[in-house]
Amino acid sequence: MKELKSWAFWRAVAAEFIGMVLFIFFGIASAIGNPLNGAQEVKVSLAFGLAIATLAQSLGHVSGAHLNPAVSVGLLVSCQISLLRFVFYTLAQMMGAVAASALLDGFKPREKGLGVNTLADKVTAGQGFAIEFFATLQLVLCVIAVTDNRRSDVKGSAPLAIGLSVTLGHLVAISFTGCGINPARSFGPAVIRREMKNHWVYWLGPMCGGIAAAFIYDLILSPRSPSLSRRRDILFNGTDDDVDDNLMREAEMAGPSQWPKPDFIRTYNSNDVPSSKSPHLSSKGLHQNFTSNAVPLLKSPHLF
After folding, report:
1. H or E element: which one contains 205?
2. What pTM, to 2 d.p., does this model score?
3. Based on the domain organization, do 88 and 198 belong to the same domain?
4. pLDDT digit string (tens) for 202-244?
5. Which domain holds residue 129?
6. Is 20 within a domain?
């Protein structure tokens, strides 16, 4: 509950709302076109992918730029965010999607639709669930993998990689389900247009895909080993990386030599440098200064 007392937490929630408004507005605007146009699927796929890459780069340092309940639940299961943050992020994402859909509904020509996700002809609900499950699984797996701070081999832009993953999901799933892979994206237009047929597919499929991605990465591909008490502490109290706002304001006013150093901010001398024999840097090794007089680096609690 300590997160509720932090302005950083509320700024992060606001960032999820604002980011979702922009994401849904531009994404669905691209989908309101000629459905018989063969290039429509490519255009929509690129629009959603570019939108998420842009917003991840813009808002990642504030909230992590989840912009998707399936991503948030994956990070919850992976014990990277608290249960409270997951709940507030999901609510902010849903509200942002509804707000953007309502705004777009007022702007578009009356005869145009609103990009409500529906199953294609002859696609059953079970088949739609499977498509949404696997399309979301690859997205959340990508998010968790490229933002794993234990890795030292990730090159290039994490937001771009995630944007391409969103594009891939759309290219595959649009012909079957319209491509949800984001329950909030499906929720907004469905609420405004009051079209809830098979809407459960666009929640259950992506959320199960996000949970499965977290288990696959954390238990099989790159196991984590925090203690049960540590996992419980993160789920209910947040991470150690949550920096008190007052502490940060004091740090900004002080000179570098006077910056406060909480327990989780450390400096190291040359003797603390990890061995070059190790194939990967430890998570500690990614966030340290190696000179005793250096300005301490704050570990970011965010994805990007």
Report:
1. helix 201-215
2. 0.76
3. yes
4. 999 999 999 999 999 999 998 877 667 777 777 777 765 554 4
5. 2-229
6. yes
